[in-house]
Amino acid sequence: MKVLVATSETQGERPTDYHWATEGELVWVQEPCRRDRLRMPNACGCGWGFAGLASHRATTTAKVIDIPELDLVGYESAIAKSLADGGWPPSAARGIAQVQTEFAAEWEVNTVIERDLWLFTARRGRAVDEEYVVSVDEYLDAAFPRPIGALLEDDNERQP
Ligand SMILES: [Zn+2]
């Protein structure tokens, strides 16, 4: 199964790069905070980041790898543990695991991905389908509880 892991490869190609996650740990795509979504001057930079499941620290570079022995059940339990560690309801793990798995499957192995909010770009490697563009609505619907998705919509409406 393809998953995203933290990588230091290609770090430094963007001035906004950071790599606080543990090299090689599983990472996932989190909804950016409001300041990042609105690109406010005091944004924390999470809108460029992938969150480490174990370290709870982030990196701006995620690599797609294939772990044949990992299945959706094992991946879901890793996410559930991370959520519980962070004080979040582990019940969200199933939806997150499914969306993350679908997302990772869209990229060729060894592709290094960067993000800018909901735009994901291959810094090295490529998407399986060159036309692939992640759908924000689909992502939020599947991965996050309703109230958070609703907040994002509110923010978008306030943007000029
Ligand atoms: Zn942020």
Entry summary:
The protein is an alpha+beta fold and 160 residues long.
Structure description:
Helix 2 crosses helix 3. The C terminus is likely disordered. It is globular and about 40 Å long. The chain has 160 residues and is α+β, with helices and mostly antiparallel strands. The longest helix has 14 residues. It starts with a strand and ends with a helix. The strands form two sheets. The chain has a four-stranded antiparallel beta sheet, with helices on one face. A three-stranded antiparallel beta sheet has the order 2-3-4, with no helix packed on it. It is built from five helices and seven strands; from the N terminus they run ββαβββααββαα. The protein binds zinc ion (ZN). Zinc ion binds next to helix 1. The site of zinc ion has 8 residues, from helix 1.
